[in-house]
Design brief:
single chain; 86 residues; 2,3-Dihydroxybiphenyl 1,2-Dioxygenase, domain 1; 1 helix; 7 strands; 51% strand
Length: 86
Protein backbone atom coordinates (compact mmCIF):
# COMPACT_ATOMS: atom_id res chain seq x y z
CA UNK A 1 0.00 0.00 0.00
CA UNK A 2 1.13 3.53 -0.77
CA UNK A 3 0.00 6.64 1.09
CA UNK A 4 -1.45 8.90 -1.59
CA UNK A 5 -2.63 11.80 0.61
CA UNK A 6 -1.90 12.61 4.24
CA UNK A 7 -3.79 15.23 6.21
CA UNK A 8 -4.18 15.63 10.00
CA UNK A 9 -7.67 14.03 10.06
CA UNK A 10 -7.39 11.50 7.22
CA UNK A 11 -5.10 9.56 4.92
CA UNK A 12 -5.74 7.96 1.53
CA UNK A 13 -3.94 4.75 0.62
CA UNK A 14 -3.84 2.80 -2.64
CA UNK A 15 -2.25 -0.44 -3.76
CA UNK A 16 0.13 -0.15 -6.71
CA UNK A 17 -1.78 -0.46 -9.99
CA UNK A 18 -5.18 -0.39 -8.27
CA UNK A 19 -8.11 1.90 -9.00
CA UNK A 20 -9.48 1.41 -5.48
CA UNK A 21 -8.52 3.89 -2.77
CA UNK A 22 -9.10 3.57 0.96
CA UNK A 23 -9.86 6.68 3.01
CA UNK A 24 -8.65 6.17 6.58
CA UNK A 25 -9.50 8.38 9.54
CA UNK A 26 -6.97 7.46 12.22
CA UNK A 27 -8.47 9.65 14.93
CA UNK A 28 -12.21 9.10 14.37
CA UNK A 29 -14.79 6.94 12.61
CA UNK A 30 -16.10 8.00 9.19
CA UNK A 31 -19.53 9.60 9.09
CA UNK A 32 -22.53 7.22 9.03
CA UNK A 33 -22.76 5.53 5.64
CA UNK A 34 -19.26 6.64 4.57
CA UNK A 35 -17.38 3.48 3.67
CA UNK A 36 -14.08 5.26 3.12
CA UNK A 37 -13.79 3.42 -0.20
CA UNK A 38 -13.11 5.34 -3.40
CA UNK A 39 -12.60 4.34 -7.01
CA UNK A 40 -10.58 6.07 -9.72
CA UNK A 41 -12.09 6.74 -13.15
CA UNK A 42 -10.64 8.35 -16.24
CA UNK A 43 -13.75 10.55 -16.60
CA UNK A 44 -15.96 10.99 -13.50
CA UNK A 45 -18.88 12.58 -15.38
CA UNK A 46 -18.96 9.79 -17.97
CA UNK A 47 -18.79 7.14 -15.23
CA UNK A 48 -21.62 8.81 -13.31
CA UNK A 49 -23.78 8.82 -16.45
CA UNK A 50 -23.07 5.12 -17.07
CA UNK A 51 -23.95 4.19 -13.48
CA UNK A 52 -27.18 6.24 -13.60
CA UNK A 53 -28.24 4.31 -16.73
CA UNK A 54 -27.77 1.09 -14.73
CA UNK A 55 -30.03 2.38 -11.96
CA UNK A 56 -27.31 3.18 -9.43
CA UNK A 57 -28.38 5.82 -6.89
CA UNK A 58 -26.08 8.84 -7.19
CA UNK A 59 -25.94 10.71 -3.88
CA UNK A 60 -23.61 13.55 -4.96
CA UNK A 61 -23.49 14.46 -8.66
CA UNK A 62 -20.19 15.10 -10.40
CA UNK A 63 -18.53 18.02 -8.65
CA UNK A 64 -15.36 19.87 -9.59
CA UNK A 65 -13.25 21.26 -6.75
CA UNK A 66 -9.63 22.34 -6.32
CA UNK A 67 -8.74 18.82 -5.17
CA UNK A 68 -10.27 17.18 -8.24
CA UNK A 69 -13.52 15.95 -9.75
CA UNK A 70 -15.70 13.37 -7.98
CA UNK A 71 -19.18 11.99 -7.46
CA UNK A 72 -20.68 9.64 -4.90
CA UNK A 73 -23.05 6.71 -5.16
CA UNK A 74 -24.77 4.43 -2.66
CA UNK A 75 -25.40 0.71 -2.49
CA UNK A 76 -28.89 -0.62 -1.63
CA UNK A 77 -28.06 -0.40 2.11
CA UNK A 78 -27.14 3.30 1.87
CA UNK A 79 -23.37 2.86 2.13
CA UNK A 80 -21.65 5.56 0.07
CA UNK A 81 -18.67 5.26 -2.24
CA UNK A 82 -16.59 7.96 -3.95
CA UNK A 83 -15.46 8.02 -7.59
CA UNK A 84 -12.62 10.39 -8.47
CA UNK A 85 -11.57 11.28 -12.01
CA UNK A 86 -10.84 14.05 -14.47
Amino acid sequence: MKVQDRFPHWHTVVAKGSKVRLHLCPDSKPEKGNTGIAFAADDAAREEKALRKKGVRITVPTTKEDGGTYFMFADPDGNEFWVFGD
